[in-house]
Amino acid sequence: MLVSRDEPEPVFFRHRRIDTPHTHGSGCTLSAAIAAGLAQGMPLTEAVEAAITWLQHAIAAAWAPGCGPGPVHHFWQYWPLAGGDLTTKSTKDTK
User: Fold this and answer.
1) From the CA atom positions of the chain, what is the Rg in Å?
2) Phi-psi bin for 84: left (phi > 0), alpha (psi -120 to 50), beta?
3) Helix, strand or coil, per DSSP, at residue 42
4) Cβ atoms 81, 63 nearer than 8 A
5) Per-residue pLDDT of the chain (95 residues; tens, 9 = 90+)
6) What are φ and ψ of residue 24, in 5° steps?
């Protein structure tokens, strides 16, 4: 949910929840992706939507380099791994 003085009502973002423990760094990654969108001149709502979509792919492609929860896969677009993608991961709709 985004509350902004530029929007008359809160903006809700729906996305699929990916069933994986490999989400280490997802909050920092999301904020950096939003900032990158804003730096490219996107309106705030569009930057948030694009960042969420990008992060969904990074989470779907995440892998564990050792034991425990692994990091999101920041380079999923350029360096595919065997971990999968949004089409192969178990997902659930968020409410």
Assistant:
1) 14
2) left
3) coil
4) yes
5) 989 888 889 999 998 889 999 999 999 999 999 999 999 999 999 999 999 999 999 999 988 778 888 899 998 888 876 555 565 555 554 54
6) -60, 125
Cα separation of 36 and 14, whole Å?
A: 21
Which amino acid is located at 36 in the chain?
A
Burial of 24 (0-12, 13-18, 19+ CB in 10 A): middle
Residue type, 15: H
CB of 1 closer than 8 Å to CB of 10: yes
| Phi, then psi, of 2 in degrees rounded to 5 | -120, 125
**Confidence (pTM):** 0.79
User: Hunting for tokens 């003085």 — which residue is that?
Assistant: 5
Tell me if residue 44 falls in helix, strand or coil: helix
